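This part of the workshop introduces the protein records we will be handling. An example says more than a description, so a record of this kind follows:
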Amino acid sequence: MTLPIPAIDLRGGQVVRLYQGDYAQQTTFAFAPDVLAARYADEGATWLHVVDLDGARSGQFENLATIAAIASAGRLRVQAGGGIRDEASVRRLLDAGVERVVVGSMAIREPKTVAEWIARLGPERIVLALDTRFRDGAWALPSAGWTADEANTLDDLLPWYQAAGAKHVLCTDIDRDGTMTGPNRALYRHLAALAPAMAIQASGGVRSLDDVAALTVQGVAGVILGRSLLEGAFTLPDAFRVAAKAGATC
């Protein structure tokens, strides 16, 4: 079954959303992160996706205390990332109670190193964040909080990681992120064809319960819900209901 997963993006200790990954186009929400996480737990969430946007740019854990507080509350299983540059950083998040560490820039720049982490720590501990933009006829993979272009493409890396034993991949169409213009369903069909054995989490552009249902029918493992929940486009309980109904028809 496809699992709706609420998301909290952190910058300066606040809950924010960026438009297409642009740090200059930020919306700040008046929710304390721990209170928002507790609300999502009350509404039936089992997993929470957390991004340290400061860390994604600086390579430092700038919101670790907030992430650790949410994880230590014990109400949600947390996958978190932002600023992972070495195995020690991965272990630091795991020690803070995070169950899955989301690795982005390193997964793109140094895949052999990240494959070694997966081999040592296990495929359940690492989520590859292969966030992408379609440029010049290929799915490009920007890094460093989507601010730097890299040579590897999505079509290069995802099959390679599947062969290396990776299990979880989160993929955001950056051009849809924070826009609420609908998810790029063609991208997720492409991912399923590239790496059919991997559990794919869809992110970016989800605006309605119809989008949740469409992604569920498509067979993604998870749907990341950020702005749509924060702005009240629909509720998390409704997302669970729609995903369960759509999954039953597959």
